[in-house]
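QUALITY CONTROL LOG
STEP: pairwise intake check
CHECKER ROLE: data steward
CRITERIA: each record must contain a sequence immediately followed by its structure tokens, with no blank fields

ENTRY 1 OF 2
RESULT FIELD BELOW
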Amino acid sequence: MGASLPQDPDAWGEIAFQRFCTPAASRYRSADHHVLVERARFHLGNASAVRVPMAEGDLQAYVFDPEGAWNGASVLLVHGWTSEASFMTAFAEHFRKCGFRIALFDFPAHGQSTSERATLIDCAHAVRQVAEVLGPIEYVLAHSLGGMAALLAGGGGAPMPRGYPFRAFVLVAMPNHFSAVTRTFGEDEGLSAEAQRAYERRLESIAHCKISDFTGVNLLKKTGRPALLLHSRDDPNIAFADAKEIAAASGGAEIIAFDDLGHRKILYAPPAVRAAGAFLLRLHRTPLRAHSAWLHSAAAHES
């Protein structure tokens, strides 16, 4: 991080926090990220582009109408950290063929949304805001850290002003322990133990909870909703063990394992896409009337 920078742990922790919250500077992005983005955005051609306002700046969102008759439900697609909406279009195209209406968007500081920096909490606020503006939304499919943002938006409670009552979640390659993410980042940055703690305290101050308590298990339990976990056994970024931990601790969670799909190829793999569609169709064929009525009432209130 540079020998000329301040040496005290609090200063290093603040520098690490700012770097962590700058997706464009992330080392997790591949060298050909911009080439991949241009290719992926081609698949947004059938969508309607929408700007969704937030206090911190506008979000770029997209809506796909169903192909054929609408089945009455909408799905929100949530991308992962350093990614963008265009990488979720394989799911969008399949879901619209199943009769769903699809909404997807770029997180703050991602894709074509505004801002240069964002926290996972900012992303959770964005999930709720998009759902409220473009909803009602019944279902969410989210990738990687986007899954944690979606669950936080659904569960509500501090630091969220309110939760959004999504009916169910499909969580693709989502981590269980956020502490593992921060620890890996700190190791990559060469932080001392004291600086690591300072960096994590910054995150805890905005999350209103300890890093150790910020887990997929706890977030999913707080929503009280069913979920499908899709994960590849060879994922090099998020261990398959994370999915097994979440499923084991969550009575309403199912898990489907894949091989040789890594962390990102799973977003385009037909078996994963079909499994997600089948799960949502199965749920939608047994609608929760009270939940559906609440959603439409909430949408009417927001408008």
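ENTRY 2 OF 2
RESULT FIELD BELOW
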Amino acid sequence: MAGSPKGYDVAMGRLGGATRAFSRDIGGMPVWALILSAVVAVGAIGAFSMASAADGRSTAYTLPSDAATPQLPQPMPLVAFLGDSYTQGVGGGGVTWPDLVGKDHGWDIANLALGGTGYLRTSDERGCGRPYCGRYIEASQEIIGSPRIIFVAGGRNDLRLETADIAAAAEHLFADLRERYPAAQLFVVNPWYDDDAPPAQLAAVTTVVRAAAGGAGAVFLETGQPLEGEPDLIVDDGVHPNSDGYRALAAAVAEALEPHLE
């Protein structure tokens, strides 16, 4: 501007620079508009806070009264099973009596049964698929945690061994389980046979196992012989149950068990 004082020109230059700065766009919005929005927002927040403080209201979030309280699922009781191939489920195509009984009661199943084993018998590749599978008391060492319930089933594989030795092994197993898991319920299932008539020694084994269970404070579950005279419940090997056979075993166990569950 011709004839303007030098100081005036400097001031106007500064004012012009500031005007250009405020006129710049950021994200499609002029700087002055962004600043104005921020000032308005801060003012609104301050006014709301002052009003809340004045009337004693809290700005904290309050859960609606009709909101459901989150519920954590209860852990399933751990139940361990010791036994032979009948408890393991050989021949059942994935169906096992421990799984069937456990599902009805909401149990977390730990099936430690191994084919070919017993109170005295050990097994190998022909029975359990491993180089060595130990007796029931050895299998019990694989129990992890604190089971609420422990089942022991079997005894067929111990046939042709001395009944007195079977009795001693059963007594040792049940006493050991009772000492290690004093709070657990201990159930002992009578030895099973296939669809043929059981040999005479099976009755003797059943008698000594029942006595050993009673001596340790365990509950002996007498289920009879659900497979006897039922060839349709046995697979082609003539020994192991099929899926329907395992369902029959599960039904027999469930019936004998029901009065004793805590």
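INTAKE CHECK: passed for both entries
DESCRIPTIVE NOTE, ENTRY 2: The chain has two domains: 8-55, 78-260.
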